[in-house]
Write a structure and sequence with these properties.
The chain is built from five helices and seven strands, in the order H-E-H-H-E-H-E-E-E-E-H-E. By secondary structure, it is an alpha/beta fold. It has one domain: 2-Layer Sandwich (Endonuclease, Chain A), CATH 3.30.870.10. Strands 6-5-4-1-2-3-7 form a seven-stranded mixed β-sheet, sandwiched between helices. The termini are far apart. The model has no long low-confidence stretch (mean pLDDT 94). This is DUF6879 domain-containing protein.
């Protein structure tokens, strides 16, 4: 489990893949150029052949074709950061690939027990936590996996609570400063 790539884990997923994102800023290297262009122009790059999308979209499409339900929920502060404006603007590519995405304003998450890190939960059995630096880039030990029942249960409950309260992407309007 710990040596498999995420693509291999997702290929072995049969029912559900859920992702919870809780940061207001990410600085992952594969988005750097597109994000900088978005800041300059205000226009998102929605070309699925650019940046990290050529690796991601086929993974999602394959999983969805096998019957995997892929959901992504994002907890965001409002007014949103420039990064969240960017992320919201490029989310149509997630939707086109087959993910369902919801947004939850942070003020509506106060009473939800949440893990300390973003995560993927695959088939309700494996959690992959994501570790980031304070500036939002991947930490040196950026991914940690576990099948520990307590961690799986916490992540499952947290995701479902956020999902239930979340606003579908097409209904969520970013509130820029």
């Amino acid at each position: 489990m710990n040596t498999a790539t995420f693509a291999e884990l997702l290929a072995d997923t049969h029912h559900t893949a859920v992702h919870l994102e809780m940061r207001d800023v990410y600085a992952v290297g594969d988005e750097t150029d597109d994000y900088a262009a978005f800041l300059r122009t205000g226009v998102p790059n929605l070309d699925p052949a650019r940046s990290f999308w050529p690796q991601w979209i086929p993974l999602v499409k394959d999983a969805v074709a096998r019957g995997v339900v892929m959901r992504r929920a994002r907890i965001v502060s409002e007014p949103v950061t420039d990064y969240i404006r960017y992320e919201h603007a490029i989310t149509p590519l997630n939707l086109q690939a087959g993910e369902d995405v919801r947004w939850l304003p942070r003020r509506h998450a106060c009473d939800i027990p949440l893990p300390g890190n973003d995560f993927w939960l695959l088939d309700g059995r494996i959690v992959q936590f994501h570790h980031f630096t304070g500036t939002g880039d991947w930490a040196p030990d950026g991914k940690e996996r576990t099948a520990a029942p307590a961690a799986v249960a916490l992540c499952a409950r947290a995701f479902e609570a956020v999902w239930e309260r979340g606003i579908p992407h097409e209904k969520y309007t970013v509130q820029a400063p």
